[in-house]
TrEMBL record:
<keyword id="KW-0805">Transcription regulation</keyword>
<dbReference type="InterPro" id="IPR000843">
    <property type="entry name" value="HTH_LacI"/>
</dbReference>
<keyword id="KW-0804">Transcription</keyword>
<keyword id="KW-0678">Repressor</keyword>
<protein>
    <submittedName>
        <fullName>LacI family transcriptional regulator</fullName>
    </submittedName>
</protein>
<keyword id="KW-0238">DNA-binding</keyword>
<dbReference type="InterPro" id="IPR010982">
    <property type="entry name" value="Lambda_DNA-bd_dom_sf"/>
</dbReference>
<dbReference type="Pfam" id="PF00356">
    <property type="entry name" value="LacI"/>
</dbReference>
<dbReference type="InterPro" id="IPR028082">
    <property type="entry name" value="Peripla_BP_I"/>
</dbReference>
<feature type="domain" description="HTH lacI-type">
    <location>
        <begin position="7"/>
        <end position="61"/>
    </location>
</feature>
<dbReference type="InterPro" id="IPR046335">
    <property type="entry name" value="LacI/GalR-like_sensor"/>
</dbReference>
<dbReference type="Pfam" id="PF13377">
    <property type="entry name" value="Peripla_BP_3"/>
</dbReference>
């Protein structure tokens, strides 16, 4: 057994051939350090066995320094960028991340409660919009918890996300400014609070413009590509069509564009289409999709900072932190087509 003294930050700096300040930045603010430098520092940390003070302190206290992140779909394009913000902030304070993937199955959350019961995790980050199945039996023993991306429908725990209503309002205001009056909202929901808030923003914008309820076409959806395609089929069974589609997320919008294309229609010449989230695929659509950009990395960072407050037994300054989203204007929106939208099929 080696009796050599523990590695110091000076050892890491020497091996990585950088300054001590750079090592500190690479550990605590990795986004401010070039990738190549961060890689050298991380390799030096691995070789020397250097342990940051925060991690060492957690080990000495015998307290878990792991945060459990429960997500319904790790393939969701929004997940990875939020996770980056979460992990960077966690690492800066000596915590690590465990990921629990529910695969959109509420009962799978029950499997992850064993980590909580065994005190293997210090805190909980929820992407699911609901507390884990079975939480009722142990609500009092839940660790400090924060919801992200999707407000917790049955929770009452702090939440960090985007201002959904404000984002939706930006979209509908833009569509109205382009001259659209008959707008379809695709993705209405009774269980997903984020979608409900986006619908509220849509209605606020239409009301503010003095447009009657008869000019709105509301269709339910679950945020999938297929729900967007199905909405197009449902709308084409009606006597009157919208001139624009305001979709609850980008996946829905992509489904709408596919459905319109299959019927021989062009976006934006025949119909305008907008999304919400600005997932990577949005810019590669033809035409590129006008949408709302979520500050995903910032959401992750704020959520972890809020959880760290709770872990330190501090009272959070806000129960809900809503970040302002940006409208990203691309080529899927134009003034309403002069063609009639009363017919069901393109002649």
């Amino acid at each position: 057994m080696s009796n050599s003294p523990p590695a110091t930050i000076e050892d890491v700096a020497r091996m990585a051939e950088v300054s001590i300040a750079t090592v500190s930045r690479a550990i605590h603010n990795p986004e401010k350090v070039a990738n190549s430098t961060r890689l050298k520092v991380n390799q030096a940390i691995a070789v020397t066995g250097y342990t940051t003070n925060a991690v060492a302190r957690s080990l000495r206290l015998g307290r878990s320094n792991m945060i459990l992140v429960v997500a319904p779909d790790i393939g969701d394009p929004n997940f990875s960028n939020i996770l980056i913000g979460l992990e960077n902030e966690a690492r800066a304070h000596g915590y690590g991340i465990l990921i629990g993937h529910t695969q959109n199955d509420a009962q799978r959350g029950l499997e992850y409660l064993k980590f909580l019961n065994a005190n293997q995790t210090a805190g909980l980050i929820l992407f699911t919009g609901i507390l884990p199945f079975g939480h009722q039996a142990m609500t009092a023993r839940l660790p400090p918890s924060v919801g992200v991306f999707e407000p917790i429908f049955n929770g009452g725990i702090p939440y960090v996300g985007v201002n959904d209503a404000a984002g939706a309002r930006k979209v509908v205001d833009m569509l109205i400014a382009e001259g659209h009056e008959h707008i379809a909202f695709i993705g209405d929901s009774r269980v997903r609070l984020a979608y409900m808030r986006r619908r509220a923003g849509f209605d606020e914008g239409m009301d503010a413009a003095g447009l009657p309820k008869s000019s709105r076409m509301i269709l339910e959806g679950d945020g999938t590509l297929e729900s967007g395609r199905l909405a197009v089929e449902q709308l084409f069974m009606r006597d009157r069509l919208p001139t624009a589609f305001m979709c609850v997320n980008d996946q829905t919008a992509i489904g709408v564009m596919i459905g319109l294309s299959a019927r021989g229609y062009d976006v934006p010449d025949d119909f305008s289409v907008t999304g919400f989230d600005d997932i990577p695929q949005a810019v590669f659509m033809s035409p590129p999709l006008t949408t709302i950009r979520q500050p995903r990395s910032a959401i992750g960072k704020h959520a972890m900072a809020l959880l760290l407050q709770l872990l330190n037994n501090e009272e959070p300054t806000q129960q809900e932190v809503l970040l302002t989203p940006d409208l990203v204007v691309r080529n899927s929106v134009a003034a309403p087509s002069r063609r009639s939208h009363k017919s069901r099929d393109k002649s």
